[in-house]
Design a protein that fits this description.
alpha/beta, Rossmann fold, globular, five-stranded parallel sheet, 16 helices, eight-stranded mixed sheet
């Protein structure tokens, strides 16, 4: 192989129908692939390829060869094939992030192939912010982080992933700003270009906003969330996503995509109990979950919160009373001056810590590390989860 030639994704299968589908998707992504018709050939190419797709037909033989651990491994099969427990076991042995069924899971596979064509491109960190209980201040922290990035002369994108919230554009006083909302974005297909997309988004003081239109809540498909976050991470220095507390397909994809998740918890006993219901789900989907403790001056300390939830503390914040008064009076949320806003000063330091500590985003790894294969279209409930999600507003 020419060492100067671009690396190619590896397809390991001898199923002609599956290979036809894989090659079609590769052509659509603009990449050429290396094809291995035998497990031994796949092992020789295993570490060279930016991405590996293993057909269910070669999966058992490849698992027996015990290939070295690596990122960007998926297992794929046709929808006519039934994937039993032995498939999941072999997928685990190869380090696969998921077992996909074609054609249903073609968008996820297409995204991986597109990523492999740009394997050397750097991704900005994606920071997801979620409230430990309703009204915890997660949306305000997300806005403040984007504002800190602007003060640091960083290109930032602020993504509203909460379909039941009031909208980040509303909190920023930009609900009437022209530009595309989620309803316009979910209809688009294929790889997005950030420069072109950003020019069509509403913005607030230089911050690009991906947010909702007015009217009833609508679900964002996981593929659309993945495409937007990946696109934003390619063209920005930091992406901040505001997530709902309750399970949501698009928000769950944002969790998997995040390099860091910040769980905002007021230092109050009821809030800690509520956060204890949310934290396990975050830990299953994200590789780096940290606490932001909102101090209230009560008997519960930040150390108590961290010890109870068994999570590291990213920072402690105080209530920004001037900002809260402004919000209640209808003023836009704009904590911009660290000298007059306790929140702004804290998030400046938090932003610096997040950027210095962030490694590759989860999109670079295909999910949290180490990966656990799960059906991409099925969410497995956990016995410890509450039987019902929060159906109300989750801020």
């Amino acid at each position: 192989m020419d060492a100067s030639a671009p690396a190619r994704p590896l397809f390991a299968t001898e199923d002609p129908r599956l290979l036809d589908d894989l090659l079609r998707l590769a052509a659509a992504a603009g990449v050429e692939a290396t094809v291995a018709h035998h497990a031994a050939h796949a092992v020789t190419e295993w570490n060279r390829a930016p991405a590996v797709v293993v057909g269910v037909d070669l999966l058992p033989a490849l698992a027996r060869l015990d290939p070295p651990p690596r990122r960007h491994v998926l297992v794929a099969g046709l929808s006519a094939h039934r994937h039993g427990a032995e498939v999941w076991e072999d997928a685990l042995r190869t380090g696969a992030a998921a077992v996909l069924s074609l054609p249903a899971d073609e968008p996820r596979l297409s995204a991986l192939l597109t990523e492999s064509a740009h394997a050397r491109a750097e991704h900005a960190p994606v920071v997801a912010v979620i409230g430990g209980r309703g009204g915890a201040g997660a949306s305000l922290l997300a806005i403040a982080l984007a504002g800190a990035a602007r003060r640091a002369n960083l290109r930032s994108a602020l993504v509203d992933a909460d379909p039941l919230g009031s909208g980040l554009d509303t909190l920023l006083g930009r609900e009437d700003a022209p530009g595309d909302r989620w309803g316009d974005l979910v209809a688009r297909h294929g790889r997005l270009n950030w420069s072109a997309l950003r020019s069509r988004l509403p913005e607030a003081g230089g911050i690009a906003l991906v947010t909702w239109g007015q009217g009833p809540a609508a679900e964002v498909p996981p593929a659309a969330m993945h495409s937007v976050l990946t696109c934003a991470a390619r063209g920005s220095d930091i992406v901040v996503a505001d997530l709902p507390r309750g399970p949501d397909p698009g928000a769950d994809e944002a969790l998997r995509r995040a390099s860091t998740v910040l769980l905002v918890v007021p230092a109050e006993v009821p809030a800690v109990f509520a956060a204890a219901r949310t934290a396990p789900r975050l830990g299953r989907s994200a590789r780096d979950v940290r606490l932001v403790v909102r101090e209230s001056g009560g008997d519960v300390s930040a150390a108590d919160v961290a010890r109870t939830l068994d999570l590291p503390t990213a920072c402690r914040v105080r209530a920004d009373r001037g900002l809260l008064r402004g919000l209640r009076a209808g003023a836009p949320a704009a904590p911009d001056d660290p000298r007059s806003s306790p929140l702004a000063g804290t998030v400046d330091r938090l932003l610096s810590d997040l950027r210095s500590a962030s490694g590759p985003s989860a999109a670079d790894t295909g999910g949290p590390s180490p990966p656990t294969p799960v059906p991409s279209s099925v969410s497995r409930p956990d016995p410890g989860d509450p039987p019902h999600g929060n159906g109300g507003r989750t801020r």
